Amino acid sequence: MKKTQIKTLFGLLFALILVVSCSSNALGKVDKGRELAQVIIQAGKT
Asked: Which superkingdom heads the taxonomic lineage of this protein's source (predicted)?
């Protein structure tokens, strides 16, 4: 994949994480949202 495609993909993932975090925050599930975000970030690093 091209670097621009990877950046776009990570941008979309980050936006998704933010939405999930906000939704989880509203539902009182902040920890779950953070865990999910960390798992996705770790997956992106490897």
From this structure: Bacteria
